[in-house]
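Why show two proteins at once? Because comparison is the fastest way to build intuition. When a single record is shown, students tend to memorize it. When two are placed side by side, the eye starts asking what differs. So, the first record is below.
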Amino acid sequence: MKAHIGTAIKAHLLRGAFYLLLLLGVCVIPFALGQQSAINSGVDAAKMSLAGRISSMSEAAEAQPSNSPHAAATAVVVWDQYNNAGTAVTLSATFTDSPAMNSDLADDFVVPAGYAWIMRWIDVDGSYFNGPGPANTFSVFFYSDNGGFPLSQIYATLAWWEQNGSTFRVHLCDNPPSCQPYLYPGRYWVEIQANMTAKCCGEWGWTDRTVTDLNAAVWRNPSGFFGACTSWSRRGATCGLDPSAPDQVYRIYANVIPVCSIDSRNLGCGGTINFQPTEFSIDMPSCPVDPATVHTSSFTVNNIQPDSFTLLNNNTTIRFHYNTTPVVPGLNTMHVPAGGFNCVCGPVLEFTCTFTYQASTPTPTPTPTPTATATPTATTTPAASPSASEAQCTVIGTQPACDSTVFTQVTDFVVSIGAPVEPSSVQPSDFTVNGTPADEDGVAGTGITFHFNASPVVQGQNTMHIPAGAFICQGSGHPVNEFTCAFTYQPSTPTPTQPPPSPTATATPTATPTLTPRPSPTPRVAPTPRVRPTPPPRP
């Protein structure tokens, strides 16, 4: 089996191995690194590699049925990257006899809004190299996300597993709902790590994937033994490990339960707006709201409660209205307290979202310089430029924003005008999406909310349009300027409702599936031998 490692790292590896061999030789350790026999190959540091080669997996490999004693009908595939396998595996293991080689490898996934996952098991593709295996145990870790990298470890366990060819099924929960982990909506990182004895059994690597979902996989070797990436770094781009296959091959099974959570994807969290809205809509896509439990205190912007609210879309959307905008220049905070209202599936989870308001700077209209005529006493009158009120009667912002991407089929669109709008002049047909007029409208100062009973949004590019003169602004009576703006709708990955197909194996015809005995009950804690340094703060 060939080693897959960059030239620079390989040189450092060999140099480090030489120093380690020299030190251990002086100390007369019984099994010196590099010792070999006719029966077992010792821990040869010169052979240690960050990635090993594999050849048994096709481009779109699937795992074959395993002999799991648990009915698959109780769990569904909730995240699937078991495809597009590369030709290498990357080290993800700890070693009882060579802890300097301990390495971590993690990939990210998303639990969608409205659901919680009871994690059941994970199919991970991998292989042993520089030895026949097996692992002593497998560890599974889940981390929270911090800007595209793992942050805090939120769950750790030793897990029993079974192997079928290159598929390692690692079990997390056999008796739901009594066990953990529960993962609520958000982005997470998962690490699958073999705990090995290198002298007898070699190393274990996780199969690399040529297609990237979300962020590329991250890797670290905390001791620095391999000369690269002592903290979480992009495995391919930064650490130089198999850059052509930057992600990992795995599949997650879970029980899916609806929860009352707010879908933040269309709220512009973390973004910047250039208008001061008076209406805010929040969506609970999987679990309708109990109307009797909603109050103006259920939602705040900068700790200011709205003046009224309306329930829409079969009680899965709440639109909160302010008579005067609560938005201030700079950072603003939307907040829903835990239990602020109830859905039919339980109390709402706490929700906090920040955004920035930055007032747009109007572009001044230049006034032509008067030109003298042939008559000395006469001058031309400068061409009239649009008045301030006329210039302001134009669209200055929308929700969804122009050129943005949304992940749900929106039914409410907020349009912000540069001057107060005359309510009596506005009609639902003044606003269209893809040529479809709105069904209702609501005017509040400079903001107009257009509501569609059925979403006009289609997959791909969508166009919002207001024709010139559709309505007028107050005081000046100036008609609104024409407005056209595009945004993109990209559906989120749906949560499966049917049991997954049986996984397919990639084992060779002569391979016999091996069931590894369950570890004793005491290991279901975070492994004590591993030292996990806190990642340095991101710049």
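Second record. Ask yourself what differs from the first in the token line.
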Amino acid sequence: MSIIALYLLFAYFNTRIDSIDGLNYSLRFASLVKDKGYVAILENPIKPYLGEMLLGLTWRFFGFRAMHLMLGLWAVLSALLAYKLFTKVFPTNTELRRRGLLLFVLSSPVLALALHEFKTDLLLVTLVLGSFLLLFELFVNAKTFHLPLIALLCGLSILVKTSSTPAALLITLVAFLQVAKAEKLRSALPRILSGVILFFSPIFIWGTFFGITVPSFEEEIRVPSVLSKNPRHLYLTRDPKILAACIEERDTKDYGSFIFGARSPLVLIQPYFYLTRTNAHSFSEQGLQNLGPFLYVGLVLLMAAPLIFGWRKLQPIHKALYIVSLGTLACFYYFVSAIYWYIIFLFPLSSAIVVYLISTLKNHRLKEVLVNLLYAGLALNVFLALKTTLLVSHPMAEITQTALEGTMASGVYLHNKKLERLAQNGLILNASEHKDLIPVTFMTDNDAKVLKSNYYFASASKPPDEMYQELRDLGIKYITVDKYSLYSQWYQGCPKENNKILLAFLEKYTIPVFFHSDTGSPNIFELKD
């Protein structure tokens, strides 16, 4: 308990301002919720981010540091629920419980999320592990009344991260099937119907009141927010096929920067590439990017569980967890295969199968070597995570220009305040794209004043003068993008073509009005009259 108390005290005072994803997404949306209670993006409504809503409301009513304490509480809950899960998996083996918990809690992604990343993934872990524990009660102890709560937790998990959708659907499905099997259909039907209602109700309510989109389908699925005080929604003209090609080429390039062999069968032998550092970040920068060889192997072993243990020898609850794991991993490897923290809720199951199989080895020397390597890897993870945290930690009571000095967000703050002043004259098009996104987190009311380009210049399929006229007709007066970044060799294919067209557009139709404080690169442009 003393360790938990010390960690929560640290979480309360630790400010996670140097988090790239945090600046671009989570902190931005939490800040908007803090300021006005909702988020209503000009073009596409906010994706289903329940975590940012909770953080923003905590910030609004209890303060900036209380919001960071919330991140710490999610980390503690994740660890406690993981331990509870290990007690279910290993009811009589304390050593395997401890070893499995350490492999999960001290993995590099979990440490990054617990110490220095401003992300909501550990809330997702809390919800999914909670549903796993309820599944155990449902399958092992025949507590069918847990079904509605399982469905509710799964529905809420989708609102935290849409990447959890395959797992949420499968968990709910196996729970439905188990209740139908345990009870007669007539008596099971009310529970199943209540489960269906509780699964879809959070998503329906969120979509109705806050707006909703589905990642990669923003052009087809977009429900505006009815809470927005500004009912205006602006839509740039894009060719859906060209836009889809741009996004696909961006994702392929991006995923390949995280892990060698992304979107190919090579992801199944990632432990080798991890150890040899093939096309990978250095160990000192691994953070969220790398699981370490044991968790990588564990995920592959999860998919092969029936071959290892025999399908008939698996207990019903183990079969259910296998179905959830296999379906989730199949979707992950097919669509993503690189950003492993998307499936962080499977890490405890990966840990469990790894530590169990190591314990069954008959070669005691090999077993000892593997256990020592496991602990050595975890010690390295802890060292690197603490080093990174010390480098990026900047305790502050609230976000101000003075407090941000010395952080990577300092220049962003100055840029955003300039945008805020300019926005009094007209709307702003944020033409920056991954990997050089320009955050607008510190700009007041940015959701109603900034329109995202989303490869507009490549996908508009129209001459530059028509693009210029469309932007003017929509009330856009400024474009923000780091000009020097448009020359980066990282961009290939459609994203590169987008940059090429954008550069020509900037030269002909705009004048620079603001420059990067360090590089001198123009990053705000005003459209000519």
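One difference worth noting in the second protein: The chain has a mean pLDDT of 89.
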